[in-house]
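To illustrate the input format used throughout this study, we show a single complete record. The first block contains the structure-token representation of the backbone; no residue identities are included at this stage. The design step must infer an amino acid for every position from geometry alone.
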């Protein structure tokens, strides 16, 4: 069988501008005046659409430091969108009487639990929906103009990974019960950049990750009954559009895509499926010649397992802010007889698509 993998990498630009105004009572420092309330201008200039961008951004949190002091001048302040589509802070904030302020913002609010100038530990499995939430961050350092609007341009801290599947051979019926991503590091330390994120992306103003660890398995599709099994066709099936179980695009920690992780486990996309002859109904795969590695012990449907590598000769790492789309094509080789569907080979391709809207 020929199992082909096509990887599309989409990095694009979209712009949304929001206004954030803080109320003017309960100042946080003596001597401050109401005219010096801090206001925020929020944008996502270098973001592609995701679950945390545009009008879906409901809340972000802010730290600020006066003259880079050890103690925060603004300590994890929440800025929230009201039902009337207005933005309000949960506490009034004012410019200091002297010095500058450096701002560090992020969403959602549980990304940072201490000084953002230090590494912050993050676990993509910290909630009940693993890897389904994006993380955004923004930095604006050394602002000195009281009354000026603080510009916060948010960026993605994570990589987004999605899978599409198809079969272009009308002589085959490919039934897919489960799709996973195996061996993805789920924990690591995030480092805010020390330069402003309002500038065009560069290494010095882009957040980084270190100590990626704890490989896990991400479930993109899981058929819990026969009616949830996918039958592939020549039109690609986007697992993110199905609405079944814990499937869909995943937001993952950027990381090097090793063939094996630190525990010796493989890093791959796993597809549990059955393949039939469309004309006779004969099951072609798995069969008596299928290796133990490609058999799924205990499968309710008798599935075999196809493995598609996450890395290829052209891509070896996931980067923050990039959307990786793996297009899986499961076809047969015309020169191969039905009983010889044994160990499929994998062809890897990389496409880079830049879209400007």
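Output of the design step:
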């Amino acid at each position: 069988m020929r199992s082909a993998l096509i990887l599309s990498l989409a990095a694009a630009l979209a712009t949304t501008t929001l206004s954030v105004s803080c109320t003017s009572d309960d100042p946080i420092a003596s001597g401050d005046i109401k005219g010096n309330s801090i206001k925020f201008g929020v944008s996502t200039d270098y973001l592609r659409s995701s679950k945390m961008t545009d009008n879906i951004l409901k809340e972000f949190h802010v730290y600020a430091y006066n003259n880079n002091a050890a103690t925060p001048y603004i300590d994890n302040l929440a800025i929230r969108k009201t039902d009337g589509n207005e933005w309000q802070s949960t506490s009034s904030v004012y410019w200091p009487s002297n010095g500058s302020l450096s701002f560090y913002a992020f969403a959602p609010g549980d990304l940072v639990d201490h000084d953002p100038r230090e590494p912050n530990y993050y676990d993509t499995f910290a909630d009940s929906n693993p890897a389904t939430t994006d993380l955004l961050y923004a930095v604006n350092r050394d602002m000195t103009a009281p009354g000026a609007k603080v510009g916060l341009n948010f960026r993605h801290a994570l990589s987004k990974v999605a899978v599409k599947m198809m079969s272009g051979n009308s002589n085959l019926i490919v039934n897919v019960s489960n799709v996973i991503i195996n061996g993805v590091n789920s924990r690591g330390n995030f480092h805010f950049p020390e330069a402003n994120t309002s500038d065009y992306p560069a290494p010095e103003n882009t957040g980084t990750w270190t100590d990626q660890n704890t490989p896990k398995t991400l479930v993109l599709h899981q058929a819990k009954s026969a009616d949830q099994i996918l039958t592939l066709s020549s039109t690609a099936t986007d697992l993110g559009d199905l609405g079944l179980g814990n499937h869909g695009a995943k937001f993952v920690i950027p990381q090097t895509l090793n063939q094996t992780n630190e525990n010796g486990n493989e890093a791959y996309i796993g597809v549990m499926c059955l393949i039939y002859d469309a004309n006779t109904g004969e099951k072609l795969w798995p069969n008596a010649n299928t290796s133990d590695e490609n058999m799924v012990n205990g499968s309710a449907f008798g599935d075999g397992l196809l493995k598609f590598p996450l890395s290829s000769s052209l891509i070896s790492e996931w980067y923050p802010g990039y959307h990786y789309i793996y297009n899986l094509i499961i076809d047969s080789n015309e020169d191969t007889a039905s009983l010889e569907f044994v160990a499929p080979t994998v062809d890897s391709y990389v496409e880079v698509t830049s879209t400007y809207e």
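Structural context for interpreting the output: The two ends are 40 Å apart (CA to CA). The chain is about 0% helix and 40% strand.
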